Amino acid sequence: MIPSLPIAAFLAGEGPILDVRSPAEFAQGHIPGATNLALFTDAERAEIGTLYKQQGRQAAVLQGLALVGPRMEALATALTTSAQPQDGRSPTAPLRIHCWRGGMRSASVAWLADQLDLPVLLLEGGYKAYRRWVLALFERPWPLRLLGGRTGCGKTELLLALADRGVAMVDLEGLAHHRGSSFGGLGLPPQPSSEHYENRLAAALCRLEGATAIWLEAESSQVGRCRIPAGLWRQMRAAPMLEVQRPLDQRVAHLVTIYGVQDPQALAEATHRIAKRLGPQRTAAALEAIEQRDWATACLQMLDYYDRCYDHELSQHHVSAVELGQLSPTAAAQELLERGLLTAD
After folding, report:
1. N or C: which end of the chain has fewer CB within 10 A?
2. pTM of the predicted protein model
């Protein structure tokens, strides 16, 4: 009998994780690092599900066998290839296989792997159990600390520099592929679904378990279209904040390096999205500056609005502040460490 493991033991394993759900299920969200080895296409999964409801389990199983049968050799080859040692992985590391609820799809693929004499493990309860584990993780208490600062202060770059020096940090924006404003997705890959964002956050938090302080960038409840999980968001709202401050010209220069290389049409469209909040005069001035490629002036029009939003959010936290002037992210990180500003309260 092929063994099934609970989620913690399953994730702690060494072998490759093979998710045998359909491509659409996998795209919606999956265990970070998993590979999709779909047993059925999206259309086939829908067909079998309908058959199960209308004619029962036996009819669905027979149709599943008819669909998979011609692909059995290709599936076996994929399993054998997946089992090959990579990146120093042990040659005896088992394939870790799961589907939605730990049911027939994963059991069928695991059976085939077993016939090929490949070591294999199943996830008890499947991806559904994994999602319960993810959401419960955010309800656990975490020693969160927030790094705040007005737009253009280089908070993300500073957090990355701190991480290079061993500071426990979760990059909320990097995991979301978004910088958190109307302009935040420009030049970045497509965003994950909120579900997969939660999965990525859970994996990042787990790697930092035991840290005395975990630093996050102060964000609103959504980073682009990705929603920060409710349990984590509640803890962020109560977390102390260190506010980094920079001169206005430094902030503008930083924003120009990020957005001055973006498509002007995309910048104009992002400006139109916040036109009601900017007001007609600032919107018109910003659009004219974008048309003239006057990036500094365009940034200044936006900063008044974003600064007011930030100041409102700032009032919700216990805040201490540090002026970083013209320091580079590397030098600023060293400054914070030397002054002991990152130690847990």
Report:
1. N
2. 0.92
| C-alpha closest to that of 116 among 67, 72, 79 | 79
SS3 assignment, position 99: coil
Low-confidence residues in the chain, pLDDT < 50 = 344-345
118 Cβ contact list (under 8 Å, min separation 6): 79, 80, 83, 94, 95
CATH for 4-135 is 3.40.250.10
Domain boundaries, the chain: 4-135, 140-338
For residue 29, give the amino acid letter.
G
Which pLDDT value is given to residue 102? 85
Kindly list the catalytic residues: 99
Model pLDDT, residue 200: 98
CB-count burial class (<10 Å; 0-12, 13-18, 19+) for 67: middle
Helix (H) or strand (E) holding 96: strand 95-98
Characterise 56 by phi-psi region: left (phi > 0), alpha (psi -120 to 50), beta (else): left
Reading the block at residue 55, the tokens are 């004619």
CATH architecture, range 140-338: 3-Layer(aba) Sandwich (3.40)
